[in-house]
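Supplementary Note 3. Input sequence used for the single-chain structure prediction.
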Amino acid sequence: MAFEVPPLPYDYAALEPHIDEQTMRLHHDKHHQAYVDKANAALEGTQWADKDVEEVIRNLDSLPADKQGPVRNNGGGHLNHSLFWESMSPEGGGAPGGDLAAAIDQTFGSFDAFREQFEQAGVNQFGSGWAWLVLDGGSLAVTSTPNQDNPVSQGGTPLVGNDVWSTPTT
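The predicted structure, written as discrete structure tokens, is reproduced below.
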């Protein structure tokens, strides 16, 4: 089955004032759709065309050489944004509870220390990319990836990702 853009789990305007409706429509309906269309085109006619996007990204090295770049960029963009939409909520924000809160405290010392490290991962990402909270080998870690790369390619499990758009400055 070809990849599809998942519907937003909330209204386009639900994240205002943090992310406005116009930005959400452009990002979801145009940018994400372009990733899906290009990933589907790159995988068309291959044994990977009907696989789950996470499986495809996890196995990039198994794809034909001429497909790896387009699938890394566009399949990665699809996977990253699918996770991104689910990471946000109009009722969200603040520190988590339960097991995740305990793991964050154990790994980073506090939620505030985690948040600072996560923010720095985004700020220090050269160019566009992502800041991630990942489960890696049974432990939490903050990482970043360039462009549309995803931690699953290195065996990690992304828990939260933040899209870092960079605009060149002069």
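Residues 21-43 form the longest helix (23 residues). The domain at 98-164 is CATH 3.55.40.20 (minor pseudopilin epsh fold).
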